[in-house]
Write the structure tokens for this entry.
Amino acid sequence: MPATERLYDGDPYLKEFRATVVSFDRNEVELDRTAFYPEGGGQAGDSGVIGGVVVVDTQKDDGKITHILETSLVMSVGDEVDCEIDWERRHRIMRLHSAAHIMEHFLWKQLGYLERLGSYVDEKKDRADYEYEGRLPPEALKKVEEATNEFLAEGHEIRIDPDPTQPDVRIWRCAEIEMPCGGTHVRNTMEIGRIRLKRKNPGRGKERVETSLVSD
Ligand SMILES: [Zn+2]
């Protein structure tokens, strides 16, 4: 079966679309194309509605994207369905995801390069774990927060470009910051508003930086 067409790559602001059911099994639906972002790359899967049924999560397996429905409802292969993602939630994820890249840039500026061991962003916050012995100094974190907020308010454009040498890799760019990332992001840092940072200790030799949105 061919890979699902990923509408969110071309337009991360697409909220509603029509698609055709290509497979259906109990509460799992696959469409020919989708704007639902599947969990991956440290970003939560989207929720929303497909054919009037609530979608609680979106997952992927190779190139196939599966929408997990709240209830099992009969759909048939070939059905055309109206789909809508939970935009309020997704937009918060896009703001937080973009903010986390910028926070990391200023974190590295402040403390030098720290290896990122993992990260996860949902609508509540972004959590990024870094290799670090001891406790991240609070005054350094405060400086990172201030630098990030200042940068966000400057209204920098965010672009996603394909990597010319690897067509499957997408490069996230904002001012002088760039990194490979396949997630969904806002177009301009102004959309993010202000953020707040908090540290946690998720285990020995690691420190977690949590980024949350101050403005709704
Ligand atoms: Zn990203």
About this structure: The longest strand covers residues 16-25. The first helix runs from residue 7 to 10. The mean pLDDT is 95. The pocket of zinc ion is lined by residues 97, 101, 172, 181, 183, 185 (CB under 6 Å).
